[in-house]
């Protein structure tokens, strides 16, 4: 079963290696935010120094790749519901979950690589981060990718319509971004916004990232983020498997 | 028997907007038995339920009721076993456009349990057999329809399955590619592979299959070898265009050398076993009544005449 997942992952990676340019485009947006937007945030942190601003802002810009990259991962799958690829795989000896898991693994890997690049840029700009925090941050990104990509594949298989899917993803992406405090911590905002954020899984991801970048490894948002994302990932994975089975009618 | 199906049925619940649903009975009780080594065709117009039937046999769609055994295994209870023993080439083909055909071929081979080396050997064999070696590494989206179809077939055969399902294998192909594909299907039979194919082309079923069923509105309306089925209708058919169809129909139906007469608007089709000898009599009879012909032709009966006889309409109109 693991073998089948690895085979699908290998197939996806071969495709990626032939077209390595697209994931690079994915990090342009957060990098531009880091370069052009982060310097405006000096007044939002106690000392206003660049390393401090970057520690606050980088996790949000990394979540942005997850949101605007991995959430769109499912688009390719919609076409495969029509061109017969999924139909063929569904009646092949392939272990069905591997069809989704292989792709999700690819998306996680891409997201982690993108995260390394974004953190690299932030470090060049003056960010300081410990090795342990860095590694945990990568794990957190992988977890976010697992959830976001599974959600995207689930949506793709349930909707099977590019137009509907792009509307829904856009519809959710904006409020999720704002209410997670992706750009500025929600703690700067009023009580109701902070309450609303508690219902947004992304909020915990961003807050856990900020704790890690402060090297505050004991912060409760870190295990909360991992736990929450894991549970959500399992739910969305099960959902996408079900949608895959239901494709046949 | 490589396929044995009893009273297969499939009812879909289709959404019709505003929360309304409608039941669509795509397949309404199909019995099939296909012998090992046969090329078996399901002929019928679009929407007859051919694809749904094949999808049920290939374990893609679960039947609403009925049972089927494919390669000795139940399609519902032993779906995994069935999958190890079949190749399935859907109407859409199932070739990933973004990657080279070779990658899809290798993935399919390795998913069936082959090592990288075994997969490569098998892939090379198939590339060779389908003349795909030179385009093996080109992204599939740059290939022609015929090339893509050959890749689809190669992927379906990668595990050397004893049974292959081909759903509308030649739809959209030009005559040359169609003829080539027919040869490839015949080669499969020569190697002992059983084939179940669906088609809405009469000539394809006629030229290619050992036995066939004609499917219409989710039911089997006729079953047999192409020769048997055509014989049931008559050896030959005379098609006449003329004014006074009703009168002519009555007249011809009374002739003892004519087995059956069917009228469609200004066209009459008269079925008779010996067209060459019957035609002069037929012409004389028309002349005696002063019925003037616009045109007349004598042909061998085709599967379309079989279809017409069983469904009351021509397959050419039914699609």
From TrEMBL, chain A:
<feature type="transmembrane region" description="Helical">
    <location>
        <begin position="168"/>
        <end position="188"/>
    </location>
</feature>
<dbReference type="InterPro" id="IPR047817">
    <property type="entry name" value="ABC2_TM_bact-type"/>
</dbReference>
<keyword id="KW-0046">Antibiotic resistance</keyword>
<dbReference type="InterPro" id="IPR051784">
    <property type="entry name" value="Nod_factor_ABC_transporter"/>
</dbReference>
<dbReference type="GO" id="GO:0043190">
    <property type="term" value="C:ATP-binding cassette (ABC) transporter complex"/>
</dbReference>
<feature type="transmembrane region" description="Helical">
    <location>
        <begin position="108"/>
        <end position="127"/>
    </location>
</feature>
<dbReference type="InterPro" id="IPR013525">
    <property type="entry name" value="ABC2_TM"/>
</dbReference>
<feature type="transmembrane region" description="Helical">
    <location>
        <begin position="21"/>
        <end position="41"/>
    </location>
</feature>
<keyword id="KW-0812">Transmembrane</keyword>
<comment type="similarity">
    <text>Belongs to the ABC-2 integral membrane protein family.</text>
</comment>
<feature type="transmembrane region" description="Helical">
    <location>
        <begin position="222"/>
        <end position="241"/>
    </location>
</feature>
<keyword id="KW-1003">Cell membrane</keyword>
<keyword id="KW-0472">Membrane</keyword>
<dbReference type="InterPro" id="IPR000412">
    <property type="entry name" value="ABC_2_transport"/>
</dbReference>
<dbReference type="GO" id="GO:0140359">
    <property type="term" value="F:ABC-type transporter activity"/>
</dbReference>
<dbReference type="GO" id="GO:0046677">
    <property type="term" value="P:response to antibiotic"/>
</dbReference>
<feature type="domain" description="ABC transmembrane type-2">
    <location>
        <begin position="21"/>
        <end position="247"/>
    </location>
</feature>
<keyword id="KW-1133">Transmembrane helix</keyword>
<dbReference type="Pfam" id="PF01061">
    <property type="entry name" value="ABC2_membrane"/>
</dbReference>
<keyword id="KW-0813">Transport</keyword>
<feature type="transmembrane region" description="Helical">
    <location>
        <begin position="133"/>
        <end position="156"/>
    </location>
</feature>
<feature type="transmembrane region" description="Helical">
    <location>
        <begin position="53"/>
        <end position="78"/>
    </location>
</feature>
TrEMBL record, chain B:
<keyword id="KW-1278">Translocase</keyword>
<dbReference type="InterPro" id="IPR027417">
    <property type="entry name" value="P-loop_NTPase"/>
</dbReference>
<dbReference type="GO" id="GO:1900753">
    <property type="term" value="P:doxorubicin transport"/>
</dbReference>
<dbReference type="Pfam" id="PF13732">
    <property type="entry name" value="DrrA1-3_C"/>
</dbReference>
<dbReference type="GO" id="GO:0005524">
    <property type="term" value="F:ATP binding"/>
</dbReference>
<keyword id="KW-0547">Nucleotide-binding</keyword>
<dbReference type="GO" id="GO:0016887">
    <property type="term" value="F:ATP hydrolysis activity"/>
</dbReference>
<dbReference type="Pfam" id="PF00005">
    <property type="entry name" value="ABC_tran"/>
</dbReference>
<dbReference type="InterPro" id="IPR025302">
    <property type="entry name" value="DrrA1/2-like_C"/>
</dbReference>
<keyword id="KW-0067">ATP-binding</keyword>
<dbReference type="InterPro" id="IPR017871">
    <property type="entry name" value="ABC_transporter-like_CS"/>
</dbReference>
<keyword id="KW-0813">Transport</keyword>
<dbReference type="GO" id="GO:0043215">
    <property type="term" value="P:daunorubicin transport"/>
</dbReference>
<comment type="similarity">
    <text>Belongs to the ABC transporter superfamily. Drug exporter-1 (DrugE1) (TC 3.A.1.105) family.</text>
</comment>
<dbReference type="GO" id="GO:0046677">
    <property type="term" value="P:response to antibiotic"/>
</dbReference>
<dbReference type="InterPro" id="IPR050763">
    <property type="entry name" value="ABC_transporter_ATP-binding"/>
</dbReference>
<keyword id="KW-0046">Antibiotic resistance</keyword>
<keyword id="KW-1003">Cell membrane</keyword>
<feature type="domain" description="ABC transporter">
    <location>
        <begin position="3"/>
        <end position="242"/>
    </location>
</feature>
<protein>
    <submittedName>
        <fullName>Daunorubicin resistance protein DrrA family ABC transporter ATP-binding protein</fullName>
    </submittedName>
</protein>
<dbReference type="InterPro" id="IPR003593">
    <property type="entry name" value="AAA+_ATPase"/>
</dbReference>
<dbReference type="InterPro" id="IPR003439">
    <property type="entry name" value="ABC_transporter-like_ATP-bd"/>
</dbReference>
């Amino acid at each position: 079963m693991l073998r089948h997942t690895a085979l699908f992952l290998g197939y996806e990676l071969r495709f990626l290696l032939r077209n390595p340019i697209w994931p690079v485009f994915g990090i342009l947006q957060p990098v531009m935010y880091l370069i052009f937007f982060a310097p405006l945030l000096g007044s939002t942190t106690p000392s206003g120094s660049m390393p401090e601003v970057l520690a606050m802002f980088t996790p949000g810009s990394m979540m942005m790749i997850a949101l605007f990259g991995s959430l769109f991962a499912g688009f390719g799958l919609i076409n495969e519901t029509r061109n017969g690829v999924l139909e063929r795989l569904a009646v092949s000896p392939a272990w069905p979950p591997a069809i989704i898991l292989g792709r999700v693994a690819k998306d996680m890997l891409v997201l982690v690589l993108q995260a390394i690049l974004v953190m690299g840029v932030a470090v060049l700009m003056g960010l300081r981060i410990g090795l342990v925090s860095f590694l945990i941050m990568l794990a957190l990104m992988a977890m976010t990718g697992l959830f976001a990509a599974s959600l995207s594949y689930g949506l793709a298989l349930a909707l099977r319509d590019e137009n509907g899917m792009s509307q829904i993803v856009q519809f959710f992406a904006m409020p999720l971004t704002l209410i997670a405090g992706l750009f500025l911590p929600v703690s700067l905002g009023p009580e109701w916004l902070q309450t609303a954020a508690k219902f947004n899984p992304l909020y915990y991801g961003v807050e856990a990232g900020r704790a890690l970048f402060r090297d505050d490894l004991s912060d409760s948002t870190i295990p909360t983020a991992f736990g929450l994302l894991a549970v959500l990932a399992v739910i969305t994975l099960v959902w996408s498997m079900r949608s895959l089975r239901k494709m046949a009618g | 028997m490589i396929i044995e199906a009893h009273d297969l049925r499939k009812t879909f619940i289709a959404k019709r907007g505003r929360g309304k649903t409608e039941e669509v009975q795509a397949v309404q009780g199909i019995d099939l038995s296909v012998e090992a080594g046969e090329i078996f065709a399901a002929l019928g117009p679009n929407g007859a339920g051919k694809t749904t039937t094949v999808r049920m046999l290939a374990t893609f769609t679960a039947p609403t009721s009925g049972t089927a055994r494919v390669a000795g295994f139940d399609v519902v209870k032993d779906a995994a076993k069935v999958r190890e023993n079949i190749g399935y080439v859907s109407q859409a083909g199932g070739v990933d456009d973004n990657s080279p055909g070779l990658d899809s071929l290798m993935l399919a081979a390795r998913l069936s349990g082959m090592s990288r080396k075994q997969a490569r050997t098998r892939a090379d064999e198939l590339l060779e057999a389908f003349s795909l070696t030179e385009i093996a590494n080109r992204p599939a989206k740059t290939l022609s329809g015929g090339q893509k179809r050959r890749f689809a077939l190669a992927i379906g055969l990668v595990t050397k399955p004893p049974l292959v399902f081909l759903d509308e294998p030649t739809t959209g192909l030009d005559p040359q590619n169609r003829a080539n594909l027919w040869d490839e299907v015949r080669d499969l039979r020569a190697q002992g592979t059983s084939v179940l194919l669906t088609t809405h082309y009469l000539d394809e079923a006629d030229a290619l299959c050992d036995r066939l069923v004609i499917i219409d509105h989710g039911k089997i309306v006729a079953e047999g070898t192409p020769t048997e089925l055509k014989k049931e209708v008559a050896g030959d058919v005379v098609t006449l265009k003329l004014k006074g169809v009703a009168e002519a129909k009555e007249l011809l139906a009374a002739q003892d050398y004519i087995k059956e007469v069917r009228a469609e608007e200004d066209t009459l089709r008269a079925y008779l076993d010996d067209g060459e000898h019957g035609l002069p009599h037929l012409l004389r009879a028309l002349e005696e009544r002063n019925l003037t012909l616009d045109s007349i032709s004598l042909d061998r009966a085709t599967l379309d005449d079989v279809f017409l006889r069983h469904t009351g309409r021509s397959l050419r109109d039914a699609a």
